[in-house]
């Protein structure tokens, strides 16, 4: 008498190759889902950084020479406007007022980069190539100590200006070749986008501003 055991009860019964293995399909779906989430997070993070934190800009004109040359790329700190303090000497990127777009001949350029020369309450004037400033609380005008690179002659004079509350007086470092607040007035704070704090291109001129 011979013992026999049905094949389906044997532990080494080969699998039915006609039945598809669901694991590869599940792995592919999971990988697609993970990559999709990574892409969405990256896009959202990029949007948040660009909208609220930092943004790059390309210098379109020579008005800020020799500090910034045409084609230089800078990074702007947007938080510095809402949560920081704007000082005389800061380089600021801002949306150009409507009158500035009419006065300045830069077709297609609606965002300017200039240096802050006067803050709210400052009184400004000029004589020759020297800018004079009287800050709130001071009794006399003092020559503005331009510690940053700039070119002379001054060009168009400043006249006699009192910077209104919530406004800023802007000038380019290439004084004689800059279309700035001397021509079209001060810039309201709501127009300011951020402070330029580092030049990232060209690499040979990389550095903080």
Which keywords apply here?
single chain; 209 residues; alpha+beta; eight-stranded antiparallel beta sheet; 4 helices
Overview of this structure, please?
With 209 residues, the protein is α+β, with helices and mostly antiparallel strands. Helix content is 22%, strand content 27%. The protein has helices at 23-53, 79-83, 98-103, 181-184; strands at 54-58, 73-77, 91-95, 111-118, 123-127, 130-134, 142-143, 160-162, 167-171, 187-188, 192-201, 207-208. The longest helix has 31 residues, at 23-53.
Report the CATH topology name of the largest domain.
Umud Fragment, subunit A
Helix content: 10-25%
- Characterize the overall form: elongated
Order of helices and strands: HEEHEHEEEEEEHEEE
- Looking at CATH, the homologous superfamily of the largest domain is Umud Fragment, subunit A
- The secondary structure category is alpha+beta
Q: How many domains would you count in the coordinates? A: 2
How large is the share of residues in beta strands?
25-35%
Detail the poorly predicted runs: 4-11
Mean pLDDT: 86
CATH top level class name of the largest domain? Mainly Beta
Major β-sheet profile? 8 strands, antiparallel
Number of strands: 12
**End-to-end gap:** 98 Å
What oligomeric assembly is this protein in? single chain
Counted by DSSP, the helix tally is: 4
Radius of gyration: 31 Å
């Amino acid at each position: 008498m011979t013992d026999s055991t049905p094949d389906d009860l044997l532990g080494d019964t080969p699998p039915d190759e006609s039945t598809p293995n669901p694991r590869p399909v599940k792995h592919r779906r999971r990988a697609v889902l993970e990559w999709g989430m990574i892409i969405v997070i990256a896009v959202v993070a990029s949007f948040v950084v660009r909208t609220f934190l930092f943004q790059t800009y390309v210098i379109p004109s020579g008005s800020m020479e020799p500090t910034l040359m045409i084609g230089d790329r800078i990074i702007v700190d947007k938080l510095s406007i809402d949560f920081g303090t704007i000082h005389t000497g800061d380089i600021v990127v801002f949306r150009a007022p409507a009158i500035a777009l009419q006065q300045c001949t830069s077709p297609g350029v609606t965002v300017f980069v200039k240096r802050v020369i006067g803050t709210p309450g400052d009184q400004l004037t000029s004589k020759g190539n020297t800018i004079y400033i009287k800050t709130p609380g001071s009794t006399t005008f003092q020559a503005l100590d331009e510690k940053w690179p700039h070119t002379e002659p001054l060009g168009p004079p400043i006249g006699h200006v009192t910077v209104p509350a919530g406004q800023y007086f802007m000038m380019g470092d290439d004084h004689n070749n800059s279309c700035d607040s001397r021509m079209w007035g001060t810039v309201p704070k709501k127009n300011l986008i951020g402070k330029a704090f580092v030049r990232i291109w060209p690499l040979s001129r990389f550095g903080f501003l």
